[in-house]
Fold:
Amino acid sequence: GDSVTQMEGPVTLSEEAFLTINCTYTATGYPSLFWYVQYPGEGLQLLLKATKADDKGSNKGFEATYRKETTSFHLEKGSVQVSDSAVYFCALSAVSSNTGKLIFGQGTTLQVKP
Amino acid sequence: GAGVSQSPSNKVTEKGKDVELRCDPISGHTALYWYRQSLGQGLEFLIYFQGNSAPDKSGLPSDRFSAERTGGSVSTLTIQRTQQEDSAVYLCASSPGQGRWDTEAFFGQGTRLTVV
Structure:
């Protein structure tokens, strides 16, 4: 079945460091790919998405590129801030499901220290 | 309100009791989803509504779990005879996307259920 695998956390970085959170997926066909973020005390919210191969999603300085050949959607940011501390979830939605339901990775906790 | 609203935010119940969790989606969103977030299992899909119908109930873990949606709006997730393994955060999400695979889902803050 469809699945998403994320690098395990927690990830601890100093402010202004470069961030990569790895995400790979298994799916039939060409799913849409998402990064959702959960800030402390808040609900899940969409960070960025890509709906077809080679698309790049970007928001708030974060980027991820849909790589069909490596079935990956790694999240990157060039310079993290303390306010980026949160749990990040990679997710896919399969065309074949006809529901829009999301399949999530396990989540990666990011802590950014001043 | 502008967002997805869930109530209660916290619920503590005794093992064996029934509980009802409520979700008010964003007005006009036809698709509604329930997910469960637990330490051992991560974020799992439970059920999908399109309007008042539930074409995908594949994630419901047992027949103790049921859900309904009325008026194409409010949804209630019911857990009967709660067990300790039901302890989790239950998240509701809505989307305008008619079940499309490329549409953003908007999440509520969740209901934290603790079964003691």
